[in-house]
Amino acid sequence: MSIQVYINKEIFDKWKGITINKGLDSISGSFSMTAEYNYSDEKSPFTLSGRIEIFHKDREEDLPKKVMTGYIDRVNTSISGGGLMVEISGRDITGDVIDCTIEHGSKEWSAKAVDIIEEIIKDFNINAISKTEKANSIVSQNAKPDSKASEVLSSIAKKGGFIMITDENGDLNLVSKADGTLSGSLSVGSNGNVLSASHASDYTKRYSKITVLENADVNMNEIETSGGSEPKSYTATDPTMEEENEDQKSKDTAEFFEWVGSGQSDNLFKMNQVFAEIRQEELGITLKKDKIGRYRPLTIISKNNRKNDEGNLKKEANWRMALSRSSVTTMKVKVQGWQNDKDELWRINNLVTCDLSKININTTTMLIKGISFEVGGDGSYTNIELVHEDAYDDTDFNLSDNDKENGDNADLKARLSQL
Q1: How far apart are CA 144 and CA 146, in angstroms?
Q2: What is the pLDDT of residues 333-382, one digit of tens each?
Q3: Sign of the alpha-carbon dihedral angle for 4, 8, 12, 16
Q4: Of 63, 314, 358, 401, which is most buried by a Cβ count within 10 Å?
Protein backbone atom coordinates (compact mmCIF):
# COMPACT_ATOMS: atom_id res chain seq x y z
CA MET A 1 0.00 0.00 0.00
CA SER A 2 1.21 3.51 -0.80
CA ILE A 3 0.01 7.00 0.12
CA GLN A 4 0.54 10.14 -1.94
CA VAL A 5 0.21 13.56 -0.31
CA TYR A 6 -0.05 16.80 -2.29
CA ILE A 7 0.23 20.20 -0.58
CA ASN A 8 -0.77 23.10 -2.81
CA LYS A 9 -0.56 20.68 -5.76
CA GLU A 10 3.05 19.71 -5.04
CA ILE A 11 3.98 16.18 -3.95
CA PHE A 12 5.15 15.84 -0.33
CA ASP A 13 6.86 12.59 0.62
CA LYS A 14 8.44 13.33 4.01
CA TRP A 15 5.43 12.28 6.06
CA LYS A 16 5.86 9.62 8.77
CA GLY A 17 2.30 8.96 9.84
CA ILE A 18 -1.22 9.94 8.72
CA THR A 19 -4.66 9.61 10.32
CA ILE A 20 -7.93 10.47 8.52
CA ASN A 21 -11.29 10.54 10.35
CA LYS A 22 -14.79 10.60 8.87
CA GLY A 23 -18.19 10.14 10.53
CA LEU A 24 -21.94 10.40 9.97
CA ASP A 25 -22.33 12.81 12.90
CA SER A 26 -20.03 15.48 11.46
CA ILE A 27 -20.26 17.46 8.25
CA SER A 28 -16.49 17.60 7.94
CA GLY A 29 -13.84 14.93 8.32
CA SER A 30 -10.39 15.62 9.79
CA PHE A 31 -6.77 14.58 9.29
CA SER A 32 -3.47 14.72 11.12
CA MET A 33 0.02 14.07 9.78
CA THR A 34 3.50 13.89 11.25
CA ALA A 35 6.60 14.63 9.21
CA GLU A 36 10.33 15.07 9.60
CA TYR A 37 11.50 18.18 7.86
CA ASN A 38 14.61 20.37 7.81
CA TYR A 39 13.73 23.99 7.21
CA SER A 40 17.37 24.86 6.48
CA ASP A 41 17.50 22.62 3.45
CA GLU A 42 14.40 23.67 1.55
CA LYS A 43 11.36 25.87 1.78
CA SER A 44 8.55 24.68 4.03
CA PRO A 45 5.34 23.70 2.23
CA PHE A 46 3.31 23.94 5.44
CA THR A 47 1.38 27.15 4.90
CA LEU A 48 -1.65 27.63 7.09
CA SER A 49 -4.82 27.22 5.00
CA GLY A 50 -2.77 25.39 2.39
CA ARG A 51 -4.76 22.91 0.32
CA ILE A 52 -3.97 19.24 0.93
CA GLU A 53 -5.01 16.19 -1.10
CA ILE A 54 -4.40 12.62 0.03
CA PHE A 55 -4.45 9.63 -2.33
CA HIS A 56 -4.22 5.91 -1.66
CA LYS A 57 -3.50 2.82 -3.72
CA ASP A 58 -3.31 -0.73 -2.43
CA ARG A 59 -1.07 -2.14 -5.17
CA GLU A 60 1.59 -0.49 -7.29
CA GLU A 61 -0.34 -1.18 -10.50
CA ASP A 62 -3.56 0.40 -9.14
CA LEU A 63 -4.66 3.90 -10.01
CA PRO A 64 -4.53 6.27 -6.99
CA LYS A 65 -7.86 6.80 -5.20
CA LYS A 66 -8.47 10.16 -3.59
CA VAL A 67 -9.33 9.89 0.11
CA MET A 68 -9.59 13.53 1.20
CA THR A 69 -9.41 17.15 0.03
CA GLY A 70 -8.88 19.64 2.82
CA TYR A 71 -7.10 22.63 4.30
CA ILE A 72 -4.22 22.78 6.79
CA ASP A 73 -5.58 24.37 9.99
CA ARG A 74 -2.68 23.88 12.40
CA VAL A 75 1.09 23.40 12.20
CA ASN A 76 3.10 22.51 15.32
CA THR A 77 6.89 22.22 15.15
CA SER A 78 9.23 20.72 17.74
CA ILE A 79 12.95 19.89 17.80
CA SER A 80 14.82 17.04 19.42
CA GLY A 81 18.01 15.07 18.93
CA GLY A 82 16.52 13.47 15.84
CA GLY A 83 15.78 16.78 14.11
CA LEU A 84 12.64 18.77 13.41
CA MET A 85 9.28 17.08 13.90
CA VAL A 86 6.25 18.74 12.36
CA GLU A 87 2.61 17.94 13.17
CA ILE A 88 0.03 19.09 10.64
CA SER A 89 -3.72 18.86 11.15
CA GLY A 90 -6.82 20.08 9.37
CA ARG A 91 -10.20 19.17 7.99
CA ASP A 92 -12.15 18.67 4.79
CA ILE A 93 -12.72 21.96 3.00
CA THR A 94 -16.20 21.95 4.56
CA GLY A 95 -14.46 22.74 7.88
CA ASP A 96 -14.93 26.44 7.08
CA VAL A 97 -18.68 25.89 7.16
CA ILE A 98 -18.37 24.73 10.79
CA ASP A 99 -16.38 27.77 11.91
CA CYS A 100 -17.95 30.61 9.98
CA THR A 101 -21.24 32.51 9.95
CA ILE A 102 -23.55 33.28 7.06
CA GLU A 103 -23.07 36.76 5.61
CA HIS A 104 -25.72 39.18 4.35
CA GLY A 105 -27.53 39.64 7.70
CA SER A 106 -30.76 37.91 8.66
CA LYS A 107 -32.26 35.55 6.12
CA GLU A 108 -35.53 33.66 5.77
CA TRP A 109 -36.23 30.79 3.41
CA SER A 110 -39.11 28.55 2.49
CA ALA A 111 -37.81 26.37 -0.32
CA LYS A 112 -36.32 23.01 -1.20
CA ALA A 113 -33.70 21.96 1.34
CA VAL A 114 -31.06 21.43 -1.34
CA ASP A 115 -31.65 24.91 -2.80
CA ILE A 116 -31.17 26.59 0.60
CA ILE A 117 -28.01 24.57 1.25
CA GLU A 118 -26.57 25.46 -2.15
CA GLU A 119 -27.16 29.15 -1.48
CA ILE A 120 -25.42 28.94 1.91
CA ILE A 121 -22.29 27.06 0.79
CA LYS A 122 -21.69 28.62 -2.62
CA ASP A 123 -19.60 31.45 -1.13
CA PHE A 124 -17.32 28.78 0.38
CA ASN A 125 -16.75 27.31 -3.12
CA ILE A 126 -18.34 24.03 -2.04
CA ASN A 127 -20.80 22.06 -4.16
CA ALA A 128 -23.91 20.36 -2.83
CA ILE A 129 -24.66 16.95 -4.34
CA SER A 130 -28.13 15.58 -3.63
CA LYS A 131 -28.38 11.78 -3.48
CA THR A 132 -31.76 11.54 -1.78
CA GLU A 133 -35.28 12.67 -2.63
CA LYS A 134 -35.56 13.97 0.93
CA ALA A 135 -33.28 16.87 -0.03
CA ASN A 136 -36.14 18.15 -2.23
CA SER A 137 -38.40 18.57 0.80
CA ILE A 138 -39.77 22.08 1.31
CA VAL A 139 -38.48 23.46 4.60
CA SER A 140 -38.77 26.80 6.37
CA GLN A 141 -35.57 28.19 7.84
CA ASN A 142 -34.17 31.49 9.00
CA ALA A 143 -30.72 32.67 10.00
CA LYS A 144 -29.56 35.50 12.23
CA PRO A 145 -26.48 37.60 11.49
CA ASP A 146 -24.45 35.54 13.99
CA SER A 147 -25.76 32.12 12.91
CA LYS A 148 -23.00 29.60 12.17
CA ALA A 149 -23.43 28.12 8.71
CA SER A 150 -23.11 24.58 10.10
CA GLU A 151 -25.89 25.17 12.64
CA VAL A 152 -28.27 26.33 9.92
CA LEU A 153 -27.31 23.41 7.66
CA SER A 154 -27.81 20.95 10.52
CA SER A 155 -31.26 22.39 11.23
CA ILE A 156 -32.24 22.02 7.56
CA ALA A 157 -31.01 18.41 7.49
CA LYS A 158 -33.02 17.50 10.60
CA LYS A 159 -36.17 18.99 9.09
CA GLY A 160 -35.60 17.19 5.81
CA GLY A 161 -34.58 13.91 7.46
CA PHE A 162 -31.27 13.38 5.66
CA ILE A 163 -27.54 13.20 6.45
CA MET A 164 -24.76 15.51 5.24
CA ILE A 165 -21.28 14.08 4.63
CA THR A 166 -18.25 15.38 2.77
CA ASP A 167 -16.80 13.23 0.00
CA GLU A 168 -13.18 12.84 -1.08
CA ASN A 169 -13.42 15.88 -3.40
CA GLY A 170 -14.71 18.19 -0.69
CA ASP A 171 -18.30 18.26 -1.99
CA LEU A 172 -21.17 18.19 0.51
CA ASN A 173 -23.30 15.08 -0.14
CA LEU A 174 -26.94 14.99 0.99
CA VAL A 175 -27.79 11.34 1.59
CA SER A 176 -30.27 9.03 3.30
CA LYS A 177 -29.33 6.05 5.40
CA ALA A 178 -27.51 3.33 3.43
CA ASP A 179 -29.83 1.81 0.82
CA GLY A 180 -29.15 -1.82 1.72
CA THR A 181 -26.19 -2.44 -0.58
CA LEU A 182 -23.56 -4.50 1.22
CA SER A 183 -19.97 -3.31 1.04
CA GLY A 184 -17.46 -5.67 2.60
CA SER A 185 -17.58 -8.06 5.54
CA LEU A 186 -16.16 -8.29 9.06
CA SER A 187 -15.49 -11.42 11.08
CA VAL A 188 -13.70 -12.39 14.28
CA GLY A 189 -11.59 -15.52 14.56
CA SER A 190 -8.51 -17.20 13.18
CA ASN A 191 -9.76 -16.79 9.61
CA GLY A 192 -11.35 -13.39 10.16
CA ASN A 193 -10.14 -9.90 9.24
CA VAL A 194 -10.90 -8.22 12.58
CA LEU A 195 -7.73 -7.61 14.58
CA SER A 196 -9.45 -6.20 17.67
CA ALA A 197 -12.98 -5.25 18.67
CA SER A 198 -14.94 -3.55 21.45
CA HIS A 199 -18.63 -3.00 22.16
CA ALA A 200 -20.40 -0.26 24.15
CA SER A 201 -24.02 0.63 24.97
CA ASP A 202 -25.26 3.99 26.27
CA TYR A 203 -28.93 4.83 26.84
CA THR A 204 -28.46 8.40 28.09
CA LYS A 205 -29.51 9.85 24.71
CA ARG A 206 -32.31 7.35 24.04
CA TYR A 207 -35.88 8.57 24.46
CA SER A 208 -39.25 6.84 24.57
CA LYS A 209 -40.85 9.68 22.63
CA ILE A 210 -39.71 12.94 21.08
CA THR A 211 -42.12 15.83 20.52
CA VAL A 212 -41.22 18.65 18.15
CA LEU A 213 -43.15 21.84 18.85
CA GLU A 214 -43.55 24.55 16.23
CA ASN A 215 -41.66 27.77 16.91
CA ALA A 216 -44.47 30.22 17.68
CA ASP A 217 -43.48 33.89 17.89
CA VAL A 218 -46.11 34.55 20.57
CA ASN A 219 -45.71 33.35 24.13
CA MET A 220 -48.29 31.23 25.91
CA ASN A 221 -49.76 34.16 27.84
CA GLU A 222 -50.56 35.95 24.59
CA ILE A 223 -52.07 32.77 23.19
CA GLU A 224 -54.32 32.34 26.22
CA THR A 225 -55.49 35.98 26.33
CA SER A 226 -56.09 36.25 22.59
CA GLY A 227 -57.96 32.97 22.38
CA GLY A 228 -55.64 31.66 19.69
CA SER A 229 -54.66 28.05 19.25
CA GLU A 230 -51.64 26.47 20.89
CA PRO A 231 -48.58 25.73 18.73
CA LYS A 232 -48.75 22.61 16.59
CA SER A 233 -46.59 19.62 17.45
CA TYR A 234 -45.79 16.08 16.44
CA THR A 235 -44.59 13.22 18.64
CA ALA A 236 -42.42 10.37 17.38
CA THR A 237 -42.40 7.23 19.52
CA ASP A 238 -39.85 4.47 19.88
CA PRO A 239 -41.65 1.12 19.40
CA THR A 240 -39.02 -0.72 21.44
CA MET A 241 -39.50 1.51 24.50
CA GLU A 242 -43.27 1.31 24.91
CA GLU A 243 -44.35 0.85 28.50
CA GLU A 244 -46.06 -2.43 29.18
CA ASN A 245 -49.82 -2.27 29.43
CA GLU A 246 -51.04 -2.78 33.03
CA ASP A 247 -53.62 -5.35 31.93
CA GLN A 248 -50.90 -7.27 30.12
CA LYS A 249 -48.67 -7.13 33.21
CA SER A 250 -51.42 -8.68 35.30
CA LYS A 251 -52.09 -11.33 32.67
CA ASP A 252 -48.40 -12.26 32.40
CA THR A 253 -48.03 -12.47 36.19
CA ALA A 254 -51.13 -14.62 36.55
CA GLU A 255 -49.99 -17.00 33.81
CA PHE A 256 -46.57 -17.32 35.38
CA PHE A 257 -47.87 -18.21 38.83
CA GLU A 258 -50.43 -20.57 37.30
CA TRP A 259 -47.47 -22.33 35.65
CA VAL A 260 -45.56 -22.39 38.95
CA GLY A 261 -48.59 -23.85 40.77
CA SER A 262 -48.99 -26.60 38.21
CA GLY A 263 -46.13 -28.54 39.77
CA GLN A 264 -43.67 -28.01 36.95
CA SER A 265 -41.39 -25.97 39.22
CA ASP A 266 -40.06 -27.88 42.22
CA ASN A 267 -37.73 -25.39 43.81
CA LEU A 268 -36.85 -21.73 44.10
CA PHE A 269 -33.73 -22.15 41.94
CA LYS A 270 -35.89 -23.20 39.01
CA MET A 271 -38.12 -20.15 39.48
CA ASN A 272 -35.12 -17.82 39.50
CA GLN A 273 -33.78 -19.53 36.41
CA VAL A 274 -37.07 -18.90 34.65
CA PHE A 275 -36.99 -15.21 35.52
CA ALA A 276 -33.39 -14.90 34.35
CA GLU A 277 -33.66 -16.72 31.06
CA ILE A 278 -37.28 -15.90 30.16
CA ARG A 279 -37.91 -19.01 28.15
CA GLN A 280 -40.91 -17.79 26.26
CA GLU A 281 -41.37 -20.80 24.01
CA GLU A 282 -40.92 -23.30 26.83
CA LEU A 283 -43.27 -21.52 29.23
CA GLY A 284 -45.75 -20.16 26.74
CA ILE A 285 -45.83 -16.75 28.43
CA THR A 286 -44.41 -13.30 27.78
CA LEU A 287 -42.55 -11.38 30.47
CA LYS A 288 -41.80 -8.39 28.20
CA LYS A 289 -38.04 -8.60 28.74
CA ASP A 290 -37.36 -6.71 25.51
CA LYS A 291 -39.35 -3.69 26.69
CA ILE A 292 -37.35 -1.02 28.45
CA GLY A 293 -40.48 0.45 30.01
CA ARG A 294 -38.82 3.72 31.02
CA TYR A 295 -40.61 7.03 30.78
CA ARG A 296 -38.10 9.19 28.86
CA PRO A 297 -39.88 11.99 26.94
CA LEU A 298 -38.12 14.87 25.19
CA THR A 299 -39.74 18.04 23.81
CA ILE A 300 -37.88 20.23 21.34
CA ILE A 301 -38.93 23.56 19.86
CA SER A 302 -38.26 23.49 16.14
CA LYS A 303 -35.74 26.27 15.62
CA ASN A 304 -36.49 28.84 12.94
CA ASN A 305 -39.54 26.95 11.67
CA ARG A 306 -42.23 29.56 11.10
CA LYS A 307 -44.39 27.45 8.84
CA ASN A 308 -47.35 25.80 10.59
CA ASP A 309 -46.91 22.54 8.70
CA GLU A 310 -47.42 19.31 10.63
CA GLY A 311 -45.63 17.44 7.85
CA ASN A 312 -42.38 19.29 8.59
CA LEU A 313 -42.79 18.71 12.32
CA LYS A 314 -43.40 15.02 11.65
CA LYS A 315 -40.23 14.69 9.55
CA GLU A 316 -38.12 16.41 12.18
CA ALA A 317 -39.57 14.37 15.07
CA ASN A 318 -39.01 11.04 13.30
CA TRP A 319 -35.48 12.03 12.27
CA ARG A 320 -34.57 13.11 15.79
CA MET A 321 -35.88 9.76 17.02
CA ALA A 322 -33.65 8.03 14.47
CA LEU A 323 -30.65 10.00 15.77
CA SER A 324 -31.64 9.00 19.31
CA ARG A 325 -31.50 5.33 18.35
CA SER A 326 -28.18 5.77 16.55
CA SER A 327 -26.44 6.80 19.77
CA VAL A 328 -27.26 3.65 21.75
CA THR A 329 -25.04 0.76 20.70
CA THR A 330 -21.68 1.11 19.00
CA MET A 331 -19.16 -1.48 17.92
CA LYS A 332 -15.54 -0.61 17.17
CA VAL A 333 -13.29 -2.92 15.14
CA LYS A 334 -9.79 -2.64 13.74
CA VAL A 335 -8.78 -4.22 10.43
CA GLN A 336 -5.62 -4.36 8.34
CA GLY A 337 -5.31 -1.91 5.44
CA TRP A 338 -7.71 0.72 4.11
CA GLN A 339 -9.74 -1.47 1.74
CA ASN A 340 -12.48 -4.05 2.22
CA ASP A 341 -12.60 -7.51 0.67
CA LYS A 342 -14.06 -5.97 -2.49
CA ASP A 343 -10.91 -3.88 -3.03
CA GLU A 344 -12.82 -0.69 -2.20
CA LEU A 345 -12.03 1.90 0.43
CA TRP A 346 -14.07 1.51 3.60
CA ARG A 347 -16.74 4.24 3.59
CA ILE A 348 -19.16 5.69 6.09
CA ASN A 349 -22.89 5.08 5.51
CA ASN A 350 -22.15 1.67 3.97
CA LEU A 351 -23.58 -1.61 5.24
CA VAL A 352 -21.31 -4.56 6.05
CA THR A 353 -22.01 -8.20 6.79
CA CYS A 354 -20.76 -9.22 10.23
CA ASP A 355 -19.80 -12.41 12.02
CA LEU A 356 -19.09 -11.05 15.49
CA SER A 357 -20.90 -13.66 17.56
CA LYS A 358 -17.70 -14.51 19.45
CA ILE A 359 -17.96 -11.13 21.17
CA ASN A 360 -21.69 -11.49 21.82
CA ILE A 361 -22.90 -9.45 18.81
CA ASN A 362 -25.54 -11.44 16.94
CA THR A 363 -26.48 -8.80 14.36
CA THR A 364 -25.47 -9.97 10.89
CA THR A 365 -25.59 -6.58 9.15
CA MET A 366 -24.33 -3.29 10.55
CA LEU A 367 -23.94 0.30 9.35
CA ILE A 368 -20.57 2.08 9.24
CA LYS A 369 -20.99 5.23 11.33
CA GLY A 370 -17.36 6.29 11.47
CA ILE A 371 -13.95 5.37 10.09
CA SER A 372 -10.38 6.28 10.95
CA PHE A 373 -7.63 5.46 8.45
CA GLU A 374 -4.15 5.11 9.92
CA VAL A 375 -0.74 4.58 8.32
CA GLY A 376 2.68 4.75 9.91
CA GLY A 377 5.76 2.80 10.79
CA ASP A 378 3.79 -0.18 12.09
CA GLY A 379 1.61 -0.54 8.99
CA SER A 380 -1.79 0.59 7.77
CA TYR A 381 -5.11 0.04 9.55
CA THR A 382 -8.74 1.11 9.52
CA ASN A 383 -10.69 1.64 12.73
CA ILE A 384 -14.40 1.22 12.01
CA GLU A 385 -17.32 2.34 14.21
CA LEU A 386 -20.49 0.33 13.61
CA VAL A 387 -24.12 0.78 14.62
CA HIS A 388 -27.30 -1.22 14.05
CA GLU A 389 -28.29 -1.23 10.37
CA ASP A 390 -31.60 0.54 11.15
CA ALA A 391 -30.17 3.02 13.64
CA TYR A 392 -30.84 6.02 11.36
CA ASP A 393 -34.21 4.76 10.09
CA ASP A 394 -36.81 7.54 10.43
CA THR A 395 -39.89 5.39 9.83
CA ASP A 396 -43.01 6.78 11.48
CA PHE A 397 -44.36 4.20 13.95
CA ASN A 398 -47.46 6.20 14.91
CA LEU A 399 -49.75 3.75 13.09
CA SER A 400 -52.79 1.75 14.06
CA ASP A 401 -52.25 -1.38 16.17
CA ASN A 402 -53.19 -3.51 13.17
CA ASP A 403 -50.57 -1.80 10.99
CA LYS A 404 -47.94 -2.17 13.70
CA GLU A 405 -48.49 -5.92 13.96
CA ASN A 406 -49.20 -6.78 10.33
CA GLY A 407 -47.73 -4.01 8.21
CA ASP A 408 -44.33 -3.67 6.57
CA ASN A 409 -42.96 -2.09 9.74
CA ALA A 410 -43.27 -5.31 11.74
CA ASP A 411 -39.86 -6.65 10.64
CA LEU A 412 -38.23 -3.27 11.15
CA LYS A 413 -39.73 -2.97 14.64
CA ALA A 414 -38.37 -6.41 15.51
CA ARG A 415 -34.89 -5.46 14.31
CA LEU A 416 -34.95 -2.21 16.23
CA SER A 417 -35.64 -4.13 19.44
CA GLN A 418 -32.04 -5.39 19.16
CA LEU A 419 -30.70 -1.86 19.70
Answers
A1: 5
A2: 999 999 998 889 999 999 999 888 777 777 788 899 999 999 998 899 99
A3: negative
A4: 314
The pTM score is: 0.75
Q: Helices (DSSP H) in 180-267: which residue ranges?
A: 220-226, 246-259
**Amino acid letter for position 29:** G
The CA distance from 238 to 291, in Å, is 11
Lowest-pLDDT range of 9-13, 74-78, 263-267: 263-267
Q: Given this model, what pLDDT does residue 300 score? A: 86
Q: Is the dihedral of CA 370, 329, 237, 142 positive or negative?
A: negative
The DSSP bridge partners found for residue 52 are 7, 70
Tens-place pLDDT, residues 387-406 = 888 777 776 655 444 444 44
Q: In whole angstroms, what is the distance from residue 1 CA to residue 54 CA?
A: 13
**CA dist., res. 98 & res. 151, Å (int):** 8
Higher pLDDT, 4 or 47: 4
Pairing mode, if any, of strands 2-7 and 365-376?
A: unpaired
The H or E element containing residue 340 is none
Sequence-ordered strand ranges (E) for 97-222: 107-112, 128-130, 138-143, 163-166, 172-175, 182-187, 194-201, 209-213
**406 φψ region: left (φ > 0), alpha (ψ -120 to 50), beta (else):** alpha
- Side chain identity at 59, as an amino acid letter? R
Contacts of 167 (CB under 8 A, 6+ apart): 129, 173
3-state SS, residue 58: coil
Handedness of CA 263, 264, 268, 271 (dihedral sign): negative
Query: What would you measure as the largest C-alpha separation in the chain, in angstroms?
Result: 90
SS (H, E, C) 149-165: HHHHHHHHHHHHCCEEE
CA dihedral 108, 111, 114, 119 (to 10 degrees): -40
Q: Which element (helix H / strand E) includes 331?
A: strand 329-336
- Indicate the burial class of 61 (C-beta count within 10 angstroms; 0-12, 13-18, 19 or more): exposed
- The full length of the chain comes to 419
**Tens digits of per-residue pLDDT, 29-66?**
999 999 887 666 666 667 788 899 999 988 888 888 99
